[in-house]
Amino acid sequence: MSRQFPFLERGLVWFRTDLRMHxxxxxxxxxxxxxxxxxxxxxxxxTWKSHHEGDTLVNFRLACLRELQAQLQNRNIxxxxxxxxxxxxxxxxxxxxxxxxxxxxxxxxxxxxLNEQCRDKAVQDALNEEGTKVEYYSDRTLLPPGAVRTGSxxxxxxxxxxxxxxxxxxxGIEVKILPxxxxxxxxxxxPHWPKWLxxxxxxxxxxxxxxxxxxxxxxxxxxxxxxxxxxxxxxxxKRLKAFSERVSEYQTERDFPALDSTSRLSPYLNSGAxxxxxxxxxxxxxxxxxxxxxxxxxxxxxxxxxxREFYTHLMVDFPRLSKGKPFxxxxxxxxxxxxxxxxxxxxxxxxxVPIVDAAMRQLNETAWMHNRLRMIVASFLSKNMLIxxxxxxxxxxxxxxDADFASxxxxxxxxxxxxxxxxxxxxxxxxxxxxKRFDPNGNFIRKYVPELASLNDKDIHDxxxxxxxxxxxxxxxxxxxxxxxxxxxxx
Length: 491
Hints:
Elements: E1 8-15, H1 25-33, E2 34-43, H2 45-50, H3 55-73, E3 79-83, H4 90-100, E4 105-109, H5 114-129, E5 133-137, H6 159-170, E6 196-198, E7 204-206, E8 225-226, E9 229-230, H7 233-244, H8 250-253, H9 266-271, H10 276-286, H11 296-317, H12 340-348, H13 354-366, H14 371-384, H15 389-399, H16 405-416, H17 431-438, H18 443-448, H19 476-488
Parallel strand pairs: 1-2, 1-4, 2-3, 4-5
Antiparallel strand pairs: 6-7, 8-9
Helix pairs in contact: 4-5, 6-11, 10-11, 11-16, 13-14, 14-16, 14-19, 15-16
């Protein structure tokens, strides 16, 4: 975090993936330090597309932004919108905006993928040159990346000791929830915030969030709903409250995809419609302040939130993760398959393995997938089919409404045995046994693979030939054996 500065006249909050009013570090501190305040959101569709961010994710993000804009307006904080193609153009346009609006300081919450870090450093340099202060806050994680270290001041590479160290630090700190920003005063001496500004290159800074975006298919048919998901901070808070009433059962029910037993808060965490602190605060309040122990369901959910933290910290400490590289360098030598036809069958849910197909169809239909299923389909692609995990990682980024780069990359590398603290290479999920264990009555499969709905509870997991349903795409046992042999040769 850069040096903090004294009370100022005119501030600008730069929103990115932190689209909420409450417990927003940059927004709160800007409102306490500035006499007058405005906000800006900059869409960079060409860069977003190069990062494989899909239509649903971007629709959800902009829908959350619309709700936020209305809430900010009630606090006399206008929110401006600008579309430019790429991150590389952001420093120049923010400098222009800062000059035209006579901004004294820019406030933003830090983002951690490598390209985002480079962009933010360039913004800081560009604005500092003209005397505009820039303040970045650690907001997306419980602790700033780099704050959890081993005894030899090295980053943790294994989850369990990372979790233990993080809890040791956090247990002595109160998890505080920051209030929404104060209502900014309007007076004769206040600034005139124009409805729009013309910038260099014919670009227009406006207070209107458009319904169209270059490179993206935007769905604005039903305001506040994207793929069946309610958007925005208010929807996030309602979901958190609903989950708080059943979080105690999380440990025992979370692996069963036919049950609604997970929080489904990930799209809101990813867009920033809710904060990690708000989630942890709820969990601790129900567990007598305990990070571990107490109710096993609550403790288990806290652990899952710390996995998200772990992957974000890793991404900062190991920039290669942002460059399409495996964490384990030796796995670069794996002779991955690049069979496009087979990959396409996997992606549309036509592999002939019911639990895999049901999971992929859930993804394509709802833009979300149950976490147990994410591991099953990732293992099937990277181990049984031996297709490069990066193809699957990219497809998930394109399809998921909660596509967080760090968590998605970490999850894929864990399953593919290429990442830190990954599943041992010889651990290959058997999709049939996973199906029988976690969808015992076939209820989830029947929902998404109606071709098999008439089969009994036994056959539905590994069906005989059924008209209209494909034969299995590969020999599952042989694929497992091949993957183990390939990984074993790396040792």
